[in-house]
Amino acid sequence: MSLSLGFAPSAWASDPAPAKPAAKGKEAPKAVERPTRTFGEEPMFYFDAERRPFTEPFHKTDLEDYYLCRGILGQWYRELLVEEVNGLLESLALEKVDGHTCAVRLIKTKLGKKRPIVAVDLYPTSDAMRSCILGDKCSHMRSAVMYVSKDKTLYRSYIITDGAKHVNKNFCLTNKGEVLAEQPCWRHFN
Q1: Measured between alpha carbons, how far is 132 from 109 in angstroms, rounded to an integer?
Q2: Which are the contacts of 29, defined by CB distance < 8 A and separation ≥ 6?
């Protein structure tokens, strides 16, 4: 009889049973991949204590810093934002986004603790992203701005524009993805 001490991670209900060792001469069964949604395991953003990414921005202005989403935005959170904005875009009959062309935008503020406002900008194409960030006009904005209420609940304000179709809409969504108002969250709560 032997006693083994060590770390064994707790199993999830959706995890497959551990693979049995292969018999001599037989190949071990392949592991089943974990679900891609990892609520709670991965942070929404990879920021330091000052709400800044650990990388340098790819573009800076006097008021905003832009970062590529990869490595800064949790994958599950990006998927959630894409799902929410595509639902709003569908209701407006506008071009959807896939989440691959994405930037995290930090907006400088002098309010509160002087930490930046966080926005995630999703673009239908790389040309639209280039035009919005580097150009003078942004005709296809799909932006989620994080808003924390006084009771510390996270809400998301979506700004959706389409210059060709003359659309300029704002939505406030709850942390469960339900439309709370057709205006920015900061205006809805103040």
Answers
A1: 21
A2: 19, 20, 22
Q: What is the pTM of this model?
A: 0.75
Chain centroid to Cα 122, Å, comes to 9
Residue 40: predicted pLDDT: 58
Sheet holding 102-107, edge to edge: 59-60, 64-68, 102-107, 117-122, 142-148, 154-162, 167-173, 179-181
CB atoms under 10 Å from CB of 24, counted, come to 5
Residue 16: pLDDT band with limits 50, 70, 90: very low
Write the single-letter amino acid at 70. Answer: R
Q: Using the CB atoms, write b or e for 140-165: b if 16+ within 10 Å.
A: bbbbbbbbeeeeeeebbbbbbbbeee
* Residue 147 identity (one-letter amino acid): Y
Cα separation of 119 and 47, whole Å? 13
Domain ranges of the chain: 59-189
